[in-house]
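Quarterly update from the structural biology core.
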Amino acid sequence: MKYLNYFKTALNSIYEISVILNSSTNMRHALYGVVKQMQNTLSVERALILLHDPQTHRLVLEASAGVDETTAANVYFQSDEGMVGKVFRLGVPILIPDIEREPQFLNKLNRPKATEQTSFIAVPLKFQAKTLGVLAVDKFSSRMNSVTTEVEILKMIANLIASFLHKTEFFENELSLVKNEKIRIEAENLSLINEIKSKYTFKGLAGNSKLMEKVFDKITMVTNTSASVLIRGESGTGKEVVAKTIHYNSDRSSKPFVAVNCAAIPADLIESELFGYAKGAFAGASAEKKGKFELAEGGTVFLDEVGDMPMEAQSKLLRVLQDKTIEKLGTVESTKVDVRILAATNKNLEEAVQAGKFRLDLYYRLNVFTIDLPPLRKRKEDIPAICEVIIGRLNNSYGKNFGIEADTIAALSHCNWPGNIRELENCLERAALTAGDGRIKPEHISCSGGDFCLSHIIDGKKPEEELPSDDSNSDKTQLLLALQKTGWVQAKAARMLNMTVRQVNYRIAKYGIEVKKI
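Predicted structure, tokenized:
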């Protein structure tokens, strides 16, 4: 029975891994999601994915779970080194029953002394006849099932990863050969984005940066599905705007969009607000009241600041997601509801789960599809487009003809904007109302405290210039700047550029960059 339960768990884990790989366009994020899934469901102490770098002939640790981040950033093997190198070179799985008794086991991860016997399993990542890397795990021997089962499960996962890597590497290598096609596709994407924005255009969705392109792409992917969406981002980044954009461009657009601020409703009232109550449910309940879910029938419920929802209400929300039914206060009868749930938070829900403040099962139900909204300071190239949208809205609101000077936009682009787009909007509205001739100049820009807006610059200095982001010359410059900023630590540069270490190494070799030793 124990074996059967483990096998079922393993199959579910393999399915979840396939979902992660098929739904991700970012190699590093996808591989990290795989190792975390393995650690959470397959009872492994550590999970590692090492990829072969053809330029340096090293096996570089690209993703890991259960390993200190600082240690992981500096781990690599020569392609013939240790047990990992042996798996890569021979292309066959290896299982070490007890790593303490294996003299060829190098322990480059500096594993602490284990409390019990630890086994090590490694399998090659092979696509057709080509070995791309190695998938490895540490597992306490007491948690091992049959050796055959453990190896076969890892081989199935390795096949999924290898297929994903081949597809990703193919598109990366082909990129230089299909530049004209890329331009055409980007034009089509822009047209699609404009089509989306035509129904619901708002300040938070302006911009042409690569970060916002990813947001638009995700909105496009999820709009006409019934999947729950978790929108993450700092306050003022436009999370409700994205939720409305999804709703008003979906097949539910003719039905209600009902927003609920979970942080603004007292804990003892949130259940009645969400699910309603029956007549006589409590003192003063003189008539039946519909909750937000009933009011949104056929449409969308947007749960803003869902991380602040009380635990008891979380339990009932979980039932809505699972069974599509609600129970009003004061009754045991269930009512069917047809609503789509979009949620937003500026909190780290993973930390809230670990602290016992947010249900893990609810987290998984809400986090079917995630949209991460970048803060304004990370997409300052979008500020001119955002200003244009805000000025247009102010003109409509006030019946005026406000304008903005180019040097004003340049000044705004040097601010850090801790309040994000909401702060920028407030800043421009104040400036428009104080500009005598309607033309907003740098001297009209002030923060809410009355100080010149450029005081947002750290230490009174201009922030380092944003990394360029177009074509090969900019690609090389971008890489050089990232390496300089991180003291030539390639793992840190990879994180800054949202790349893998292997991709950074490939570009270093491609552009002939001399890595400095500091």
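The radius of gyration is 26 Å.
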